[in-house]
Amino acid sequence: IPCSIIQHPLLRHPAFSAPSSVTPYIHNTPIMTHKNISNMKRTILSLCAFCVACLCSAQETVTVNFAYDDCDTLFVRVADRAFTRFERTDTLVLKDHRYTYTLSLDKARLALVRRSNANPNASQLLFLVPGETCNFASPGDIQPGSSAFYTEFEKVSVASSAEANRLIDEMNDKIKAGEPKDSLRKAYAPLIEKAEKAGKEYRLAYIKANPTSDVSAALVYIMNDYEEPLGLLSAEARNGYFSEIITSLQNDVDKEKARKEAAKYVADGCQAPDFTLKDINGQDLALSSLRGKYVVLDFWGSWCIWCIRGIPEMKKYYDKYKDKMEILGIDCNDTEQKWKAAVEKHQIPWKHVYNPKGSDLTEKYAISGFPTKIVIGPDGKIVKTVVGEDPAFYTFLDELFAK
What we know:
Elements: E1 3-4, H1 9-12, E2 21-26, E3 60-66, E4 73-79, E5 86-93, E6 99-105, E7 109-115, E8 124-129, E9 133-138, E10 141-142, H2 148-176, H3 181-209, H4 214-221, H5 227-232, H6 235-238, H7 243-263, E11 276-279, E12 284-286, E13 294-300, H8 305-309, H9 311-321, E14 325-331, H10 336-345, E15 351-354, H11 361-364, E16 369-370, E17 372-376, E18 382-387, H12 391-402
Parallel strand pairs: 3-9, 13-14, 14-15
Antiparallel strand pairs: 1-16, 2-6, 2-8, 3-6, 4-5, 4-7, 7-8, 9-10, 11-12, 11-15, 13-17, 17-18
């Protein structure tokens, strides 16, 4: 199971971007609960969006009221403009049976809200947009006094995902009642897929009919595929309150196109692109210097749970075949300090290099997830690529070296 890097940065790093003054908008976004029913491994979480819209120059203040009386604290984490980290965490305390959150912004931002009594993974997604006010009785339940933006966004989102949600709820109820899980999922998968496709078409139709709307810009973010809806937005919507979010999504689309193009040149049988990076001792290490034996390029990171879980098995196979192959760990999306600390902590015996921020190596090798293991032959040509911590990789090594 790879840790995907092709999705939006917010989904890779729990961070968003926050302008100056904003009022959050929480909204249920079931369309993001799943795309493939066979991959359902957790209960559908309520993924919400806080959004605040228009009327501004410079900065404006937003106010969001949460009538959540089932916990004593709310935590609001706001991401930076680069979508790489949380730049602030605000703690809200219950007062007069509600929480009130205000923030000054010049552009729409993203954040997460979590109840003190909730699982950390059950946070709600927020869109924060300048100059708006919204009132919630519960996540996704907008109350009178909320702005037109929130009302409209809620209406479109709920209408577009209602049927898929109904089917998911119906299936889950039957599973809870004791009916066979696997057969239910198999039966419901095509129905849910059809409903989700219809929901996507509904949202696309809305964006096409309202290309200048901030609601349309917000809808792009909660869709699984950004390219088509981005193409429907007008320059006004792209350059408005959601400009930073839209720019980030567009960058993701462009990177994915570059990755797909690069994939043509790193298929099995292609010559592996050479590169030179700093090793664990700060010395240059070129891939070409390892020519003459099999080399496994292991794209990983200390933050990647499946990369870490795979280390014991990797060690086992390194010991088994180290006279026939070399492993070159390529650390990505880490600081040098965290990289070196992880190598030391897990006592990883093979060679290591650090892939710095700004490098295009992952694009050259069309890396779509972590870990990715690429086996290169003694002649420098790619033999096999395996994405994720997959037993098939170790089976392949056994077959390769048994010859």
